[in-house]
Amino acid sequence: MTGINPMAKSKTVECSNCGSEVPITDSLCRYCNTPIETGHKLTKGEEEKLTAVINAMEEALVAAEGLNWVSGVSFLGISIISVGLFLLYYWLLDSTIVLILLTVFTIAALFLFLGFVISYTDNLTYRKLYRGDVKERINEYLENQGFSRHQFDVLAEKVLKDDAVLRRFLFKN
Ligand SMILES: [Zn+2]
Prior knowledge:
Blueprint: E1 12-14, E2 21-23, H1 44-62, H2 68-92, H3 96-145, H4 149-159
Antiparallel strand pairs: 1-2
Helix pairs in contact: 1-3, 1-4, 2-3
The structure holds zinc ion.
């Protein structure tokens, strides 16, 4: 498999802009932010192999559902708080209109907050998994094959679904 690509096993490359020696696992030059190119254009076969790796990495990220209990617990908590507040309003207020408005407003606000909590914990889970495992696996593959992270990112941007989790980690160092 190696030998096809003349850049294979080369772990660093010279930045085309500032000339610094930079790791091929960086998407952008750490000194001048220029995309890191190896000068090697991917063949059709290499592109297919890299696409398979990209999809596998996306699957590894999506498989992270460990924090799903957070949403479940938050949902339950917020439902209980909503009922409690409704009863409190009911006890405190005489006007039915105010009671309804206040209840609707409270529930809307609480669920907005719930959405925020879920997206925050989601993001945290993915970032942890990416930094702790997925990035390592991508780097290992790139170093073995001699492809640059920027080549990986360009191809990933093209082949990944619009809502793919891996998109959050493209074109960054
Ligand atoms: Zn540079």
